Structure formats: C-alpha cells, structure tokens
Amino acid sequence: MQTARAVPAATVVNLRDLGGIALGRDRRLRQGILLRSGQLSDFDAESDMAVAALGIRTVVDLRTADERRWAPDRLPPGARLFVADVLGDHPVVGPARLRALLSDADGAATSLGGGRAESLLAQSYRDMVLSPGAGAAYRAFLETAADPRARPLLFHCASGKDRTGWATALLLLLAGASRDVVQAEFLAVNRAIRAAFAPVVRRYLDAGGDPDIASAIIEVRPRYLDAALDAMDERWGGLEGYLRDGLRVPRTVVARLRADLVAP
Questions:
Q1: Rounded to whole angstroms, how far apart are CA atoms 172 and 169?
Q2: Nearest to 58 by CA among 38, 77, 81, 40
Q3: Per 3-state DSSP, what percentage of the chain is helix, strand, and coil (rounded to 5)?
Q4: pLDDT of the residue at 9
C-alpha cells in the first residue's frame, strides 16, 4: 500500500512528502505541497540543500511552549513559522515527554510497567481528539494548510509520529482515503522513529529499562490510531461531524482542501 515518500535529510528526522498516497479511484494526494517531519531544531540549510530546495513557505509547529523553548525550530530559507500547540492544555502527556520518560529506568518501571505505557499513549490520542485546546490547534492547522499561499507546508511535532500522525490522518481522511490507507501511513514512520531514538533507547536499556515500555513509547501502534478514531466516532459520529462540530472548520476550508490536495 502506497505511503508517503521519505525525503532524504541529514538534519531533519522523519521527513516525508504526503504526495502520491493513493486515495482510490485513480486519485492521489498532490506531491510537493504537504510534508511531515520531526522538529527542525537541528536543521542546517547548508548540509541539507535538498530540504532547502523544497521551497517550504510555512512550517506548522504542533509542539508545546516548553518544547519550542528547549529546541526552537531552525526554519528553511523563506519559510514562516505558524504555531498550533496541540497539547497546550495537557502539556505533560506522553507525546511531549518521550525522552524524559526514558531517562529514568526505575521510575518508568513503576509508573509505566504492566502495559501502562501503551495505555498512556492511547489515552493521549483520545485527548488529541477530545480536548478543546487540541481541537483549536488542529482547526488552525487545517485552515493554514488550505491556504494556497502557505504551501508547500511542512508540519511537525517533536518526532513526527503522534501529534503529526493525527494531523496526517485528518488530511488523508478529509481527502477521501480509506482507514486502511490512513493506518498504513500512520505505521510507516516506525522505522525512522526507531532509528532516531536508538541512542536514547540503548541508554535506557543499558540502565535496566524494560524493552516493552521503550517500544510502547517510541513506536506508533494500531491501538493508538484506533483510540483517536474511536473517540471521533463516539463523540461526533465520524469525520464529518468532527470537522463540523468538534473542530468547527468552515465548510469552505474543507472544500478547498479537498479540491486542492487531490490529484487525478
């Protein structure tokens, strides 16, 4: 199943062009207008000329204020920054604290052992759907992505898997992708994430950490996406209700996205 194209980058983790993802009936997402990644705090335009050449006009940062302060983005030439803080009203949940959660093997075993790590991440996905603050952030993201003047647009969180994963799922669902296609793209980032976090995980394991906890925190899993989709279905009856009543995205924005993002 077609997933996003990985863009070779020396200083940006998990950079992917959503263009080319199949939507069915010979339709695909347009290439070169929407990209996803991890944070840009290590981006170096001189080392990553190919990234600089993408012509990114807007970078949407989905991270918390603390994350942005600790690791501010370094923007591609000519790009502007737009902040859409998904976890602003829940700043201490798992996706914002991946490295911190793996910095204390004994503490992690006490608080996250016995399957609690996976449950924590699954709950964080429900929060990303149900929390008003997250809803405002995702509405702002979709409104920005719908503006042709803002594209090509790159959106990211810390590692590009959780907050970015749900943002990608929204775009794909809105464009008409099946849930199987959405899940395939959601899970496709695991290889890049494992590689990016390998040194952190190795230190955690060397300190006696539980590999099950590490994998639950570092990876994305079908349960996580299912938690978000279930929350959307339970509260709003599916995507259209979520867009209309949960995110309150104007119909004109939804229509513009559907028209602009889909290629024959």
A1: 5
A2: 81
A3: 50, 10, 35
A4: 94
Q: Does pTM top 0.90 for this prediction?
A: yes
What's the CA dihedral at 130, 133, 139, 145 to 10 degrees? -120
Distance, in Å, from the CA atom of 7 to the CA atom of 166, rounded to the nearest integer, reads 20
What six digits make up the tokens of 71?
Answer: 């690791």
Count Cβ atoms below 10 Å from residue 201 Cβ, excluding itself.
18
| Three-state DSSP state, 70 | helix
In the 8-state DSSP scheme, what is residue 81?
A: E
* Per-residue pLDDT at 63 exceeds 80: yes
Integer distance in angstroms from the first to the last C-alpha of the chain? 18
Nearest-angstrom CA–CA distance, 56 and 190: 24
Give 37's strand partners: 156
pLDDT digits (tens, 9 = 90+) for 91-138: 555 555 667 777 888 888 888 889 999 998 999 999 999 999 999 999
Radius of gyration of the chain (CA): 18
CB-CB contact of 233 with 179 (8 Å): no
CB burial class (10 A; 0-12, 13-18, 19+) of residue 8?
A: exposed
166 — alpha (psi -120 to 50), left (phi > 0) or beta? Answer: alpha
List, for residues 205-260, the tens digit of each pLDDT value: 999 999 999 999 999 999 999 999 999 999 999 999 999 999 999 999 999 999 99
